[in-house]
Amino acid sequence: EIASEGLTRSVDRFSRFLDISGFCTGEVINFTKIGSDAAIPPRTVIEYFKILQDTLLGELVEPLKTGKFRKSISAAKFYLFDLGVANFLTKRKTVEPGNEIYGKQLEHFIFCELKAFKSYCSPEADLNFWRSQSQFGVDFVWDRRIGIEVKAKDNIQARDEKGLHALGEEVPNLKKMIV
């Protein structure tokens, strides 16, 4: 569809980019690094991410801007529209519980659920993430009211809540949730 619409001038370059985009899902985007990996200019990478958004194949999630006590990062995170597509692009057949990829996939799944809820029940709500330059982070922030941290583990420890508490210092009356 993308090729037939003429949205890319080089289907080969876009194909290389698309393969790499599977590994980018749930990650903060560095256009220069992705361009280097795909052997395409960073400005083309930016255009390709826009194509994924315009065709509803992916979405950039903007960081929540705060700065009361900690400076926030400014780069967006990217998620493909479907976890199965990400697995296909990365050639993953199975993921075992307990490893880092499992946690990233759980986060991607929660993103898809939040996005669906947003479109059905609250289209005006903002969905962001938060990460400070000192590396405190919260996976999702719903409408500046709820911080949602996703953990793929059985036992939650105090260190798993540090990002939520740090964001709570930045955003008054923040409700905190660990999934």
Describe this structure in words.
The chain has 179 residues and is of the alpha+beta class. 41% of the residues lie in helices and 16% in strands. The protein has helices spanning 11-24, 31-38, 42-54, 83-90, 100-121, 162-170; strands at residues 27-28, 58-61, 77-80, 127-131, 137-142, 146-149, 175-178. The protein has a 4-stranded mixed beta sheet with strand order 4-5-6-7, sandwiched between helices. The chain has a 3-stranded antiparallel beta sheet with strand order 1-3-2. Helix 1 crosses helix 2 (31-38). It is globular and about 50 Å long. The model has no long low-confidence stretch (mean pLDDT 90).
Key phrases:
179 residues; alpha+beta; four-stranded mixed sheet; three-stranded antiparallel sheet; globular
Q: In a few lines, what is going on in this structure?
A:
The protein is built from 6 helices and 7 strands, in the order H-E-H-H-E-E-H-H-E-E-E-H-E. It is α+β, with helices and mostly antiparallel strands and 179 residues long.
In round numbers, the mean pLDDT is 90
Order of helices and strands: HEHHEEHHEEEHE
**Distance from first to last alpha carbon:** 36 Å
What's the gyration radius in Å?
A: 17 Å
**Helical stretch tally:** 6
How can the largest sheet be summarized?
4 strands, mixed
Q: Unreliable segments (pLDDT under 50, ≥5 consecutive)? A: none
* Percent range of helical residues: 40-55%
Strand content: 15-25%
Major beta sheet, strand line-up: 4-5-6-7
What structural category characterises the helix and strand content? Answer: alpha+beta
What characteristic shape results from the CA principal axes? globular
The total strand number stands at 7
